[in-house]
Structures are given as C-alpha cells and as structure tokens.
Amino acid sequence: MEHTEKRVMKLVKVSMIAAIYVALTLAVAPFAYGPVQFRVSEAMTVLPAFTTMAIPGLSLGCCLANLIGLFLGNPLGLVDAVFGTLATLLAAVISWKIGRCKSRTVRYLLVPLPPVVANAVIVGAELTVVLNEGADFGKAYLLNALSVGIGEAVICYTLGILLMVVLQKNDFYKKIF
C-alpha cells in the first residue's frame, strides 16, 4: 500500500508541475509562441535541479501548452508540440545533471543554461524550417535562434534564478517535492 501511495504522490506532483507550466504559458499566450517568446513558465525549467519529477512534468506541460497553442493560433502547431517538447526534455535532463553539482554558485550559473541553449538551437531551427520559406536559411536560423535564446535567457536567468533562491531558502523544496 505504501508503494502505491508514493507512486500516486509522484504522479500528482508531475501533474501539478505540468498544470502550472500550462497555466503560466497560457497566461502570457500572446508572448509565448512564435519567433519572439517570453514564456514565464520557462522559469520552471530550473526545477529539475530539485526533483526528477520536474523532467516529465515540464515535458508534459510543454507538450500540452503547445497543443493548446495550436487552437490559439500558434502557426507551428504539432511541429512545436514535438520539437518544443524535445527541447524541454533534453534541457530538463541536462539541468537535472547540473543540479547534482555540490557548488551552489555553479548550480545558479549553469542550471538555467540548458533550456536557453536547447530552445535556441531546436526551436530556432523549427521556426526557420516552418516559417522562413525561401529566406537565406543561415541568416534566418541565426535570427530565430538568437530571438528565442534571448527571450529564454531573460526568463531563466531572472525568474528562474529567483525561483531557485526561493526553493533553496530554508530547504523549502524539500517540503514540496
């Protein structure tokens, strides 16, 4: 019975992370999709440093937010649900690995980096392939990658680090994860 309760609690926590990610993305929907993205929900990409449950939670949340975005007019639709989710999953796994580092300074500097790089590279390519027909691929890719990367960096290195500080303070993360 105890094993079942633990599994249910893990499922609930994964689902809550996904639901919060979706809610935060939809709260800023006009800024959450397309070449210029400022997803407040991306601050949550630091959570894998605190719990492995954030890896499936963020991935599921990203996938659902992108599928809902399809109905809100996101021109990338299913492509975004696949490749955006892949970028989130990759970044979450790398952030989790970095989060295991003992140095708090290293964690604060590097945990937010994988989502910035993964989204710049993967979503930048996705935007270029889907939206820039006939344009010089190299220039279009560079612009898209920079645009996505800058938006991601602003969120991850401000709100993301703030979230890390709050969770780290008095070991608050241990109470919720």
UniProtKB/TrEMBL annotation:
Bilayer-crossing regions: 12-34, 46-72, 78-96, 108-129, 141-167
Protein keywords: Membrane, Transmembrane, Transmembrane helix
Keyword Thylakoid included in the entry's annotation: no
Name the UniProt record assigns to this protein: QueT transporter family protein
Pfam families: QueT
